Amino acid sequence: MLLVSSISAGASGAAAAQEREDRTLLPWDQLHAIINEASGDRALHTVLELTPYPRIRSRSEYLGHFRENEVVATLAQDYGFSDVKIESFPSARPSWQPWRGELWLTAPETRKLYDIHDVVVSLAPNSDSGEVTAEVIDVGGGARPEDYAGKDIAGKVVLGTAPPATLQRLAVFERGAVGVISANVLRIENPDVILEGSIATAPAGKKAGFAWVISATAGRELTDLINRGQTLRIKSIVDAETFPGEIETVHATIPGDGTSDQAIIYSAHLHEGYIKQGANDNTSGSASILEMGRTYIRLINEGKLPRPKRTIHFLWVPEIIGTNAWLDAHPDVEKTLIADLNFDMEGLGLSRGGARWVLYRTPDSFPTYLNDVGQSVTEWLSDVNQERVRFRDNGYRFTLPVLSPNGSRDPFYVATEKHYGSSDHSLYLSRNVPALIFATWPDPWYHSSQDTPDKLDATQLRRVAVVGAGVMSLLASADDAAALKIVAESLARGVERLGASQRKGLGYLADVTEGPALVEAFREASNAVRHQQDVEKAVIASAGVLFANPEAASGQLADLSSLIERRSAVLQQEVAAFYQLRARQLGVEAVAYVPSSADNEAANTTVQRVPGGRFFGRKGRNDVLFASLPARDRPAIVAAYERLPQHMAAELSVLISQGKTVLEIRDFLAGEFDPISSADLLEYLRATEKIGGVKLIISK
Prior knowledge:
Its main location: endoplasmic reticulum. Keywords: Carboxypeptidase, Endoplasmic reticulum, Glycoprotein, Golgi apparatus, Hydrolase, Lysosome, Metal-binding, Metalloprotease, Protease, Secreted, Signal, Zinc, Zymogen. By secondary structure, this protein is an alpha/beta fold. It folds into four domains: 40-92 and 246-367 and 414-477, Zn peptidases (Aminopeptidase), CATH 3.40.630; 95-241, Glucose Oxidase, domain 1, CATH 3.50.30.30; 480-586, Topoisomerase I, Chain A, domain 4 (Orthogonal Bundle), CATH 1.10.132; 597-698, no CATH class. The strands form three sheets. The chain has an eight-stranded mixed sheet with strand order 1-9-11-10-12-15-13-14, sandwiched between helices. The protein has a seven-stranded mixed sheet with strand order 3-2-8-4-5-6-7. The longest helix has 37 residues, at 550-586. Residues 1-16 have low confidence and may be disordered.
């Protein structure tokens, strides 16, 4: 710990240890002030206050405030946040809470298998109350109708490896089983982990049954007994209660100085349903933004950071539904927001989890300077918290160690990846607010019985707080000089991204082994560069919002856009020259691309989203929607959905609301990700039209 103290005690002493290339957008003295104040141990202590262990809630929490919300509100008040308030909104979905839940094996022996007071997530939410004893039938996977062929499961309990909701639909609702046992597993290397899952409430005239989720190890044990000819019987005991649906949020602010009517927001989901209570997912994110705010408040009070021009909002919510409810109730705040930073799964020990801390960029359909701000500060802290041999004159150590007294000595491994949408930041994007998400990934204990505080690392939490507080100070106090500095960062990083798009395109050309495919590769290479050019122009334009006079700034920044076009044109010339070389090498003529019949059809077909329209989501995994389709249509629709790679689905959902043609959408997806044919995209959209998600309008 002496090493940490001596290096980070002050800006003057620490600066000598810095390398000149280690720079980011904040001044050194402000960065060092943040490092000296931010505490990973405090954040970890907050996690322990919020989720010391997954527990059975008390009835009083459903009648008053949830325990976690009271903890956050109390700490926020203690730390000097303003306008701290717990708010409650009604929900159409009732809250289900079990008081007793036990799963017993009664034959061939008597043994308690699970108790919710030991493992809360072992009983799936929405299970019916009651005591049921029945025979267990093994259906293998249990996700396909053929898994049930020749098996009489009416009045029995089904054991399978499919998720509990899938087993419930096929076994309980369609074939009369009384309950299911799911040995579903997220990662085969963790066979003793129990994966969190739920089942649906019962449709009219049916019962929901019950569902237990057990480990893969326990599932194999039960299967082995059946395979040895044993008759298995279990007893399920469930005593649960439902309460009126409630969405409870906590909100606080750090007020701006009155010179700007803009605001930023820091978000984290404190609840993911009220049964699941995950330490990394996501009390770690909730504790992190609290620590960022505490750090910032203290440093502005001490004069070590400038006071914010823009108000900073902090919002702790039930995931997704809480964000929507709060923003709907506060449109006055929503219209002031220029950025959201969402923290979801922050504290996992990186070495222990085999993880990195990942910044997920906004999609290309939402280009913004915010990506570069987040990436700049994140990469800076990563660089100075890894041992770099070229700087070994400073000693075999990190350049500027950011460690916690009770934390690891892990290097700070980070990554920046393309957009991922399954968290609250996606709601801000849908409301036209730029939003980033930070997360540790992979997480071997994600959504499981073992997402507990012992997996977290105070050092990781401290580094997260440093990055978050640094970005907070930069965005909240940015004046015209800081805004132009951000423009410079985006411009330079945009050059790198343009180069990467060209590298991707040249790879298409270099990988072709047969002449006929070369012209298609040339088309995709040119499209990749053109797509990135348009993105980078929009990124520069987006930074105008940070200037005191955004309109005037927009006109000035337009000059940079023309320079981006010129740079892109040179890259396109290089792509064309390489195309000529590759064509000669393959002994073919370098001809212009001729659109296919599918391209022409795509160019003449506009996509229109149907309000409230239905979608499969990830490759047909919406079980309820799938079940509603006529059996004869299912194979063709699922086959059409398989034509779209999963990683394109979220972006496609945005693009179909923009009045684009199918060809424009194809070009956009191919430029952002990788090539997809017009024919495949048309098939996907026709299937979506068939289930009521979109309408395809063909031009005359």
